[in-house]
Amino acid sequence: MDECPRCQGSLEELSLGDVSTVSCPHCEYADIPVEHESVPETPESWRDALNRFYEETVPKVDPVEVESAPNANEEPEPIARED
After folding, report:
1. Which of 10, 15, 45, 61 is at 20 to 30 A from 71, Cα to Cα?
2. Could you tell me if residue 22 is inside a domain?
3. CB 9 within 8 A of CB 22
C-alpha cells in the first residue's frame, strides 16, 4: 500500500519492534483496525454516584460520644446592655 486510501497521499511506515503499520501524514489515516461501535453503559443514578463518592472519600470513623457540659440544660443569664 503506497497510496492513502482516503486522500491518495503518500503513506509513511511506522514500526516499533516487530510490529509495523502505515500512516498518512496528510489526513492522519492509520492502518489500525478499530471498533467504532460501543455498547452503551447503563447510566449511573445521582443517588448511586453520590453514595459511591461518599464511600470513597469520607473517612470511616466511629461516632464519638460527646459529653454535655454540666450546665447544658440551664438557661443562660442575659447580658446587661450598657447604653
Report:
1. 61
2. yes
3. no
DSSP 18-63: TEEEEE-TTT--B--------PPPPPPPHHHHHHHHHHHHS---PP
Residue 24 is assigned to a structural domain of this protein = yes
Residue 76: inside a domain: no
Distance CA 15, CA 40 (A): 34
Report, as ranges of residue numbers, the positions in the chain whose pLDDT lies below 50.
Answer: none
pLDDT value for 33: 72
Domain that holds residue 27: 1-32
Q: What is the pLDDT of residue 35?
A: 76
Distance CA 21, CA 73 (A): 80
